[in-house]
Amino acid sequence: MSEAAKRCGVALLALALPGSALALPWNLDMADSAAVKAYEREMAPLPEGVMSQPHVLTPISYRRNFSWQSDARLTLQNPLEADDAVLATGRRMYEVYCTPCHGDGEVLGPVSEKGYPAVAILAGDKGRLKNLPDGHVYLTIRNGSISTLMPAYGYAMTNDEMWSLVAWMRDALPQSAYLPPETTPAATAEDVR
């Protein structure tokens, strides 16, 4: 390499060094940035008059959501008629998403055998489904439950698939029909005496 080429290379390096030195270390900018973590804040609803459109990579568009701890869990009703197509969809969803932990509803699945905590028995004498309204079951499937380590499946299933799953569990699992709690009559002034 000629002496002139060496001098030219050193000169270019000297010119480039101060600019790149100002960018070092790069990781400080990333560590100190004002990042917002996913689900840290509740997503704002769509503005009035705007229509949600599904995306190619995430085909589920905007859906209104409720917390499973809200009063909506008591009032939400399954909008689907439990026909053969709905029950077939519900069965397929149960086999894919529920069987690994909940098994057949009465006997827990292989995940719970490995010591995974708090897997609920869904059907039979010890089953939880009979004590939970449809809205509660739907919202638990959709949003998951931190207290029982139930994962959320709202990202993986559409509303119709989740409601189909609720309908299939009510139809196919033993002793899973919802039994509302008995209401006690309100006390009157004469009862208090």
Task: Summarize the structure in words.
- With 193 residues, the chain is mainly alpha-helical.
- It has a domain of 101 residues: Cytochrome Bc1 Complex, Chain D, domain 2 (Orthogonal Bundle).
- The protein is built from 8 helices and no strands.
- Helix 6 packs across helix 7.
Q: What CATH first level of the domain at 72-172 would be assigned?
A: Mainly Alpha
- Tell me the CATH architecture of the domain at 72-172: Orthogonal Bundle
Q: From the alpha carbons, calculate the radius of gyration and give it in angstroms.
A: 28 Å
DSSP summary, beta strand count = 0
Please indicate the percent range of residues in DSSP E strands (runs of 2 or more). Answer: under 5%
Overall shape: it is elongated
CATH topology of the domain at 72-172: Cytochrome Bc1 Complex, Chain D, domain 2
Mean pLDDT: 78
Continuous helix count: 8
Identify low-pLDDT runs.
Answer: none
Structural class: mainly alpha
CATH superfamily of the domain at 72-172: Cytochrome c-like domain
Assembly level: single chain
Cα end-to-end separation: 111 Å
Q: Describe the biggest sheet?
A: none
Task: List the helices and strands in order.
Answer: HHHHHHHH
Q: Helix fraction?
A: 40-55%
